[in-house]
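Notes from the 1:1 (GR / supervisor)

We went over the backlog. Supervisor wanted to see one worked example end to end before approving the batch request, so GR pasted a single chain during the call. The sequence is below; no edits were made to it. Supervisor asked that the structure be written out right there so they could see what the output format looks like.
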Amino acid sequence: MSGFAALGLTGLVLGVIRAEPEVEPCALRDKVEALQGDEPWTRLREQVDDPRLKARLVRLGGRVESIARRSERICRSQSERQHYGDWIEDLRSEFETAEQVLSSGGTLGTEQLERLRELDHRRADRPPPAPLGHDVAKALKSSEQFERKNSRSDALTAANEAFSLARRHGEEAAALVRRARVLALLERYPEASADFKAAMLAADSARDPDLRLRASLLAARITLMRLEDVDRAKEHLDVVDAVLVGYPESRLSSRHTELAELRASVAKREGQKLLALRMQLWVVLRQLLVGDRRELGMALLNLGTMFDWIGQAKWAEASFRKAVEVLPPEDPGYPQAAGNLGRALMLSHQEDLENLALAEEARRYLQIGARPDSNIRSGALADLTTLSINAGWPEQMRDSYTELEKLLHANPPPSARLRFEAWQAVVLGRMYVEGRTPEFDKAYSVVMQEQERPAARGELDCQLARVAPTDDLTAEFVAQVQSRAADLPEDEKEPLLECIADLL
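Structure output shown during the call:
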């Protein structure tokens, strides 16, 4: 697929996306009732000549009864539904196959035959995960809720409680996976890594390959997204690949899709732009076909970051906007999608930010991204400060950089990758609103410690010269840019001198 083809496919995908209702297991059970009973399958078998196909249809008819029983079991396990995601999807896939076969009236096309063959080779009545004890399930759910509220210490306490209550290997593995995730969010990576390894061993002892896969996928995600250790993440993904080979499940399964999305992130970090974009587009298409609203929204969010990374601001904006439309406002991913949309509006319409309506729209989405429960809060606050400088909103600017500075002094602070951008926004905001103050000098000193590259320091000094409230301060920062540029190579010197040319 060429770059132009990828963009064309993106337009098609974004154009047809609609927020589809989620298929709940109880609704699935109700639908299955229409296919139950021996009579419709008997009529279908009478119209088929191939004895092997007749036998498969007999097995498929019996499987419909099994789908009904298993859906009923999930319906009675309200408190544990979140642990049954892959299993529910398998039921839905089996039901759709049965529905297609029965509606064919004995004339099976290539697609139905292929799906029937694949389904027939699955393990009969694949069991669901072993139900967790009530207290363990309650503690795990509590940990997840605390994480969504950004209360990470409470999330860790609840995960520890779940681990202490675990009595079986499966419960122990589930608790370790949850605790490892929270430890990674707290940037306690050695402990998180140890818990992931222990979770995989516990899952093996429980003979639960599904839980083993979940631990490996989450370990890969944390290693890639938090540690940015591509080589170790690829090792985890290779393990997942090897295990999935033994699963005759569709390439559209949630595990294959998560694997593809993580492979896309690896390709992105290795600089393979077209491969990363193509794989993420496939993920969006899959979620559009069989995913739920949250899966589709998060896939669109990741697609937007891909476009942002390759400099396609308009496509990034379109992807983030679709993610905001699809994700429910209460979803943990919604603030990130909204904040990224605000940033994309700012970047793709830089010359139009004097348009008050456009600036207000960007501000509205960035304010959502800056909520306390947002995982991109520092970036959204930095963007709000920049937007306020461009739009001339001193009060919004003061509010944003004040909150941002508090966040930078919090424990734990934003990652090193985000700190320079955040401190840069603080010093620009302080200079614009307050001028040269002791607070500005402290913040400026921190920025210089965070960024050692003379060219990057010069770029910040140029921006400070442009927002400085007095001619004397402008002249001071212009002179500083000239001084920094003096010893730089030509390719770094020229942009700095161009930046201050109209200020001389």
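Supervisor's comment: The chain has 25 helices and no strands.
Batch request approved.
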